[in-house]
Amino acid sequence: MADLKVLNREMYSEAEAARLLGVPQGTLHYWLEGKRVRSKQYRPVVRIEPKGGPVPVTWTEFVEAGVLREYRRKHQVPMAELRQFIDTLREQFKVPFPLADRRPYASGKQLVWDAQVAAGLEPDFWLVAFANNQLLLTAPSESFLQRVEWDGDIATGWRPAADPRSPVVMQPTLRFGRPSVAGISTDVLWEHVEAGEDVTEVAEAFGITVKDVRWALAYENAARAV
After folding, report:
1. Mean pLDDT in runs of 10 for the chain (226 residues)?
2. Of 37, 78, 116, 155, which has the maximum CB count within 10 A?
3. What is the pTM (predicted TM-score) of this model?
């Protein structure tokens, strides 16, 4: 079973977390710290309370922000309703980061449904929906669930690549949480190829397959093109 301390491990600067998630840093800062607009203070969405200052992003905060990212791709997240929804899930599941816990997506769908309705969350932002009289995961939450590697109910890995076949993974206990393939950081592999080394030579030098190197290059090229 995964060590619960991993969940609260400080992993990334805010800027780095935003880059790895593919969201504007200002958006991630709002999710983590809230913001003030004129005389009104808006609470955070991911964190229960703002921490203030340049505080590193923990592993669980990063994973939970990944859920919001799935919705952010096509929509503007309705923060007031979403904040109430997450607060309700926190209370029901007794965990500070319910969107980064497997139970809402597996055994707790009815609780999620009730929380969605109570919060007045728009259907575009539902995590579960009824189909043929059954509660099923919506496309964004299904996509998120597939991106995460789980140890029980704990998120122990995150797959940052858009292609679900990609072996690129981020783990808090490996390479300081940086994207890697076969245990090698993708940016290291990219730098070797960018310096003029042949893909086959790089694979042999690191003891991995050519396919692994190509997956690393595909991820890095896509990430750097954003």
Report:
1. 72 94 91 87 88 90 89 71 90 90 91 92 89 90 88 90 92 93 96 96 97 97 86
2. 155
3. 0.88
Say how many C-beta atoms besides its own lie within 10 A of residue 121's C-beta.
18
CA distance 174 to 149: 13
What is the rounded CA–CA span in Å between residue 147 and residue 63?
Answer: 10
